Amino acid sequence: MATVELTKENFDQVVSDNDFVLIDFWASWCGPCRQFGPVYEAASERHDDLVFAKVDTEAQQELAAAFEIRSIPTLMIVRENVAIFSQPGALPEAALEDVIGQARALDMDEVRKSVEEANKAQ
Fold first, then answer.
1. Which end of the chain has less neighbouring CB within 10 Å, N or C?
2. What pLDDT digit, counting tens, does each position of 37-50 carry?
3. CATH number for the domain including 55?
4. How far apart are CA 77 and CA 15, in angstroms?
């Protein structure tokens, strides 16, 4: 499956219409981003049940700012409208597969419960 280019215009729809979205925040001038790109693209081919998206931080500065992206590449995973993972750095293939496996294994009912409790505590 090809990656989806996210913009401020389509971001909300793509994330809300899909239960599991991986987002690569990147820029064309970034060496580690160019290194991670083929790894990310290959993973999108292996996991055709998931949505793999990319945000060009140069073209979509508002999105990058909204998610407080300070370092690229940054990988974010959103499941059922909850950001469950966000980490800067180019992951090697094995690490990316491990992160995807861990994200798949999460009990989203428990995650939502934890989020609710954290919000109440504030």
1. C
2. 999 999 999 999 99
3. 3.40.30.10
4. 10
Total domains, the chain: 1
Active site residue 49: no
- Residue 1's pLDDT is 56
List the domain range (segments joined by +) for residue 111: 4-121
Q: Please write the tens of the pLDDT for every residue from 104-122.
A: 999 999 988 988 888 888 8
Among residues 6, 23, 33, 72, which one is catalytic? 33
Contact status, residue 43 vs residue 98, Cβ threshold 8 Å: no
Regions in the chain scoring below 70 on pLDDT: 1
- Residue among 38, 74, 42, 44 at smallest CA distance from 56: 74
The reply to whether 110 belongs to the active site is no
